[in-house]
Specification:
With 184 residues, the protein is an alpha+beta fold. The protein contains 6 helices and 6 strands. The protein has a 6-stranded mixed sheet with strand order 1-4-5-6-3-2, with helices on both faces. Helix 3 packs across helix 6.
Amino acid sequence: MTNLSPGGEVAPLTQPILIVDYDPTWPQLFAREATRVRTALGERVLALEHVGSTSVPGLAAKPKIDMLLVVANSADELAYVPDLEAAGYFLQIREPDWYEHRMFKGPDTDVNLHVFTVGCEEIDRMLLFRDWLRNNDADRQLYEQTKRALVRQAWQYMQNYADAKTTVVQAIMARAQAATNDRV
């Protein structure tokens, strides 16, 4: 991962990770940011989705709106980065070795705007996870319980917390994928 923050290093956590109960204003915050992104990029927006825990009604989450932006080629930064920056977003992470992922922070709302190239398998994975949690009470509760337990621990970096969820996320994804395959 290439973190573009000052100094170029991943900043350690300086305060506990906050998980809050579901907030019904989160979809409205997404809609406002989606309008801003669509205004900045126009037809270059091939898809724009609310993802992550704030996109799942009833799920407790970090109060941060995760957005998935699909463009023709996320590695072609000149095609979209200047316009997103002009709209107030700033490029925080560049991961050329992981699906050419880019991640921006929002101008006035706590947003993670994830950018991927059309056809990237990570897009389908993110949407499957979101949709499964929206429709599966048991796994939504399991995921929330896992997150609440993990935030009670001290983590040096946010990525450590994210990595600690991997086993549960993989188990949930396996059930979601199996259910999807059964429908085909």
